[in-house]
Amino acid sequence: MAESTAWTMTLLASAQGGAGMAESLCFWVLAIGALAGAVGVVISKEIIRTAMCLLATLVAMAGLYFLLGGYFLGAVQLIVYAGGTLVLIVFGVMLTARSPQVSFEPRWFEMAAGAVICAVLLATLLHVVLRTTWPGEAGDVPDATVAAIGQQFLGDYLVPFEAASILLLVVMIGAAFLARPIRRDRRRSRRNV
Amino acid sequence: MFTVTLQHYLALGAVVFCLGALTMMVKRNAIGVLIGVELLLNAANINLVAFNRYAAPGALDGQLAAIFVIVLAAAEAALLIAILVNFYNNLITVDVDQGDRLKG
Amino acid sequence: MSSIWVPWSDRRKQYTGLRGRIVSCAAAVYRIGGPLLKRFAPVVFFGTVIVAIAAIWLFATLVMPLLHKAGWLFVVRDVIIAVAVLGLVTVLAMYCIWWERKVAGRIQSRLGPMRTGGWHGWSQSLADGIKCITKEDTVPDDADHLLFRLAPYLAFVPPVCAFMALPFGSSWVFRDMDLGLLFLLSLLGLEIIGILVAGWASASKWTLLGAMRQGCQVISYEIPMGMALLVPIMCAGTLRLTAIGDMQSGGWFTWLAFRNPFTFVALFVYFIGSLASCKRAPFDLPEAESELVGGFHTEYSGFRWAVFFFGEYAAMFVVSGITTIVFLGAWHSPLPAEWGMALGKGWLADAARGVIFSGPLWFFYKCTWFIFTHMWLRWTLPRLRIDQVLYACVQVLLPLTMVLLLGNTVWELFNSPAHPAFAGFSTVVGYLMGLVGAVLLGGFLVIAGHGWWNRRRLVGRMTVQALPGA
Fold first, then answer.
1. Chain B, window 1-20: residues with a beta carbon less than 8 angstroms from a chain A beta carbon
2. pLDDT, tens digit only, all 470 positions of chain C
């Protein structure tokens, strides 16, 4: 529903010539959603809740892509990331969990060390982001129709496109081979799902 | 606050990137590490698309790069899950701290 | 002072004063209106449908221009439309549940619901809904409480959001997106997560099995579905659903299903994929009552269970909508739309054109035809095993869709003015496929008519005995 609001407000706001209020409201709602999801990923103790917080982040990111004019990209994000990768992650959780609420608690000094390092990284990045004068004003939303993207895929970006398809084939074969069932003699019995 | 500029998107990308890095560092569950990787890639994507919109509005290069990143992230997640299944088959756990067979 | 009998108390509850007057008015309405409703239920039902359509038309022509003028009131318009879509989904789901039980009954030589509300049990699903709302809300002890509560809504929200991009007519669409079809596919893919989380969060091995089977099945069938959709999209050249619909306005023979043999087969491939995507029989392993108790929704009671099934029927409608728009002429009737121009101008001619030639009623009718086919297949075909399901997907449908894509590419490549001989051949084949479709439809109608005409002889008399005390 966030995407629908973003979509509505963007289209109507830009149609009325004033991009300010509606677009910034959508941005703040979606950005806070994405941040809440990311923070939830860090602090949640059960892995399935981590996956659900990731879902929230992914959907909020898709909304932000719609807001930035990348409509095809947002749809691809929803199909591939939220509807594919996340399902894969949830399947991985289901296949490898001993009990429904399995959790590994990190030790406190690991958390502290990680937090310090990431705080330093964040401070550096924010310093760079906020102090640089970036070029360009907010132009009009680019005309990123599906036809234009398709022509770019088969025009300028043909080699990466074909390389990506070969890569996907190789990854499919590799993953199918890696995850094949092996009969081992001394494999301890694991809980039957 | 009322106009959303490029800096807002870049700041959001930076925060999500750092949270993803923190997730990768802190989580002991291998799938948690994978989720952290996905956060990193999403932060990079939002950067790409924001630059496309604000610095180069007529072109589509940022969005296409983001599409390729999504494709590669999906492929990598598939491989990571396959490796994870093997890890679990051999060690009966997904705790990455237990993966120290090559140690010493 | 007026008193009413409340079911949870032994005595009549007394109301005085203003509350008493309100209660007596309500009791009078119930006393008068109840028997009237039971007697004239079909009139009320169809009258409600007509009043709803008239209200939508009035809203679109009178209220929307006012809202357009006052800038920020687009929020009001959007909220009204969102609530209307939610209402449509709820009413549609309730109607489909009743209809499913009637169809199931007829296929099994019985009558289905007959008592609730009078005429053919029309308020059976309303009564079921009230029962579901008043049931005890159980949450298993071991369950993940937050996710258990969240899962039905994760499964319900994506199909409802899909109504945003689904056009009911040329201008009867909330958001006419350039990538409408891709948006719908992405929302249908999000539904899997709700079911997976539901199965996991119930902390039961049966639900987990059901959820994993469902995830497996829906993801696998997304591939032949998407590729089968690519076949007519290649003919249409756009993902915009209104443009695809406008392309098919020339009558029966311009519908994309009858364009060449590849799109015709693609229709059936997409339909089979949609059966699997909505977890309908013969692919209803995730809800297999005879195997898994209830599959992923075993531990859900009351309103949460109802929310799952509202989502399922909404998804059925959306998927049928996609089939209709992309393959079967969207909101156009089998008659060419340009014949409707002869009716002239004015709102009466517009309404007549909407009913006869192209309008939302035709879209709705075709969608309900597909929903009927979903139900028909559910109560006719046995359930497939999971290995049969995956065999059908990967070893039958996937190579078939690849052949279709290749064939259609070659066909459309030569079907251009640069190759006039092939273009002529292609139009002839188009008419032939249209004839095949007409023959199939006619055959169905003939068989159904024969069955209806001879129903007493074939099935025997079915009588409804009055309950003691009724």
1. 1-12, 14-20
2. 566 666 666 667 777 788 788 878 877 887 887 778 777 777 877 788 778 878 877 777 777 777 666 566 677 777 888 888 888 888 888 889 999 999 998 888 788 888 777 677 778 888 888 888 888 888 888 888 888 989 999 999 999 999 988 998 887 888 888 889 999 999 988 988 998 998 888 888 778 877 888 888 888 999 999 999 999 999 998 899 999 998 888 888 889 999 889 999 999 999 999 999 888 878 877 666 556 566 777 788 888 888 988 898 999 999 999 999 999 988 888 888 777 777 777 777 777 777 788 888 889 889 999 999 999 999 988 888 888 899 999 999 999 999 999 999 999 988 887 888 888 888 899 899 999 999 999 999 999 898 888 877 766 665 556 666 55
Cα gap C29→A147, rounded to integer Å: 59
**Using CA atoms, how far apart are residues C81 and C58, in angstroms rounded to an integer?**
14
Q: Does A112 touch chain B (CB under 8 A)?
A: no
Q: Classify residue B58: in a domain, yes or no.
A: yes
- Examine residue A191 and state whether it is found in any structural domain, yes or no: no
Sign of the CA dihedral running A154, A157, A163, A166: negative
Q: What residues of chain C lie within 8 A of the CB of A176, using their CB?
A: none
The structure tokens listed for C43 are: 């009139």
CB contact under 8 A, C208 and A8: no
For the entire predicted model, the pTM comes to 0.85
Query: Where is C244: in which H helix or E strand?
Result: helix C241-247
Does B21 map to a domain? yes
Domain residues for the domain of A85 are: 2-104
Residues of A in contact with B20 (CB under 8 A): 38, 41
Domain assignment present for B36: yes
Any chain A CB within 8 A of the CB of B91? no
A8, A67: one domain: yes
Distance separating alpha carbons of residues C24 and C37, to the nearest angstrom: 19
Residues in chain A whose Cβ is within 8 Å of chain C:
1, 3-5, 7-8, 11-12, 16, 46, 48-49, 52, 55, 59, 71-72, 75-76, 78-79, 82-84, 86-87, 90-91, 93-94, 100-101, 145-147, 193
Chain B residues whose beta carbon lies within 8 Å of the beta carbon of residue A157:
64
A77: in domain = yes
Q: Does residue B68 sit within a domain?
A: yes
Confirm whether A117 is domain-assigned: no
Same domain, A36 and A90: yes
Q: Residue A46's domain is classified under what CATH number? A: 1.20.120.1200
The boundaries of the domain holding residue B83 are 10-93
- The domain tally of chain A equals 2
**Structure token digits, residue C437:** 């479709």
User: Alpha-carbon distance C338 to C254, whole Å?
Assistant: 13
- Tell me the C-alpha distance between C333 and C360, whole Å: 10
**Residue C13 DSSP code:** E
Give a yes or no: residue A137 inside a domain. Answer: no
- Please check whether residues A174 and A96 belong to one and the same domain: no
The type of residue at B41 is L
- Least CB-CB distance to C192: which of A16, A87, A93? A87
CATH code for position B19: 1.10.287.3510
A58 contacts in C (CB within 8 Å)? none
Q: How far apart are CA A150 and CA A147, in angstroms?
A: 5
Structure tokens at C311: 């989502």
Q: Are residues A95 and A158 in the same domain?
A: no
Q: Which chain A residues contact residue B8 at CB under 8 A? A: 27, 31
Total domains present in chain B: 1
